Amino acid sequence: MATDYDAPRKNEDEGNESIEALKAARSNQGTAVESEDADNPSFVLGGNDLSNVELDVVVLPPQQDEFTCMSCFLVKHRSQLDHADKTGPICKDCAA
């Protein structure tokens, strides 16, 4: 349930309502309809329709001065190499 942080706070003496009164107030508020995709909201981007546009991406092979960290699987520069163990090279970020 969403909390409205801008709503005024209740006083201590307002906490003496009966359960029936609380149930009636809750049923009068209505229920919020939850979307199936509440965790994955979609974004509507204004402007041009890009549905027919194809993107060309050039993937380069690993360079001489790069390695792939076996902990985070990111390609890093050799200056970021902390150590190499039996699984492979590990970057400084993952070794910390």
What secondary-structure arrangement, pairings included, does this model have?
Layout: H1 19-29, E1 66-68, E2 75-77, E3 81-85, E4 88-91, H2 92-95
Antiparallel strand pairs: 1-2, 3-4
Could you explain the architecture of this structure?
Helix content is 16%, strand content 16%. The chain has helices at 19-29, 92-95, and strands at residues 66-68, 75-77, 81-85, 88-91. Strands 1-2 form a two-stranded antiparallel sheet. It starts with 18 loop residues before the first helix and ends with a helix. The relative contact order is 0.09. The model has no long low-confidence stretch (mean pLDDT 79).
Keywords:
single chain, 96 residues, 4 strands
First-residue to last-residue Cα separation: 39 Å
Secondary-structure element string: HEEEEH
SS-derived structural category: alpha+beta
Main β-sheet, spatial strand arrangement:
1-2
Strand content: 15-25%
Which sheet architecture does the biggest sheet show? 2 strands, antiparallel
Rounded Rg: 28 Å
Number of strands: 4
Helices, by number, come to: 2
Mean pLDDT: 79
- Helix content, binned percent: 10-25%
User: What is the approximate shape?
Assistant: elongated
- List the uncertain runs: none
Summarize the structure in short.
The chain has 96 residues and is of the alpha+beta class. Helix content is 16%, strand content 16%. The strands form two sheets. A two-stranded antiparallel sheet has the order 1-2. The chain has a two-stranded antiparallel sheet with strand order 3-4.
